[in-house]
Specification:
Distance between the termini: 88 Å
Low-confidence stretches: none
Oligomer: single chain
Structural class: alpha+beta
Number of domains: 1
Shape: elongated
Largest sheet: 4 strands, antiparallel
Number of strands: 4
Radius of gyration: 24 Å
C-alpha cells in the first residue's frame, strides 16, 4: 500500500514546474528589461549632470566652440558607455541614440546658467505586452548656475 502511494505522487514536482516555467521565464525577462531600462535612465541623468557641471564653468561656458562641443560630447558618451551594451560604441551626440544640446540661459534666481538637454534611446529589448515597450527614449534637462 505504501509503494502504491509513493508511485502515484511521482512526477508531481516536474508537472508543477512544467506548468509554472512560462511564468518564471516571463518574470525573468521582465526583471531583466526593467533593470536595463532603469540603468539607462540613471546613466542619462548622470551624463546630463556631468555635462552641465562641465559647461557651467566660465572657461567652458561658450557653447559655440567646436572643442567645447567635442569635450561635452565625450563626457556624455563616457557616462553612457555602460548603458550602450551592444558593443558598437557611441561616437556622436548629434543623432539618436544620443542627442546633446546646451545653451546659456538665465536661471530661476536671475543669474546666468547653463541648460543641458540629453536624449538617449535604449537598445531594443523583449517587450512585455501591457507593461514594457521594447525601446525607450529618455530625455533629461539639467540647469546649473555659472561657476567661477
Amino acid at each position: 500500500m505504501k509503494n502504491l502511494r509513493r508511485k502515484s505522487r511521482r512526477g508531481g514536482s516536474a508537472f508543477e514546474m512544467a506548468l509554472l516555467m512560462p511564468w518564471y521565464v516571463f518574470f525573468f525577462v521582465g526583471a531583466l528589461d526593467w533593470g536595463f531600462f532603469s540603468h539607462a535612465l540613471i546613466s542619462t541623468a548622470s551624463a546630463a549632470r556631468t555635462v552641465a557641471l562641465y559647461a557651467s564653468t566660465d572657461a567652458n561656458h561658450t557653447a559655440t566652440t567646436t572643442t567645447n562641443t567635442t569635450n561635452t560630447c565625450n563626457l556624455a558618451l563616457e557616462e553612457l558607455r555602460f548603458a550602450n551594451n551592444d558593443g558598437s560604441g557611441l561616437t556622436t551626440c548629434t543623432a539618436l541614440p544620443v542627442i546633446l544640446s546646451y545653451s546659456a540661459v538665465t536661471g530661476t534666481d536671475g543669474q546666468p546658467a547653463t541648460s543641458v538637454t540629453l536624449q538617449y534611446q535604449t537598445l531594443k529589448m523583449i517587450p512585455i505586452p501591457g507593461l514594457l515597450g521594447n525601446q525607450f527614449t529618455f530625455q533629461r534637462t539639467v540647469q546649473v548656475r555659472l561657476r567661477g
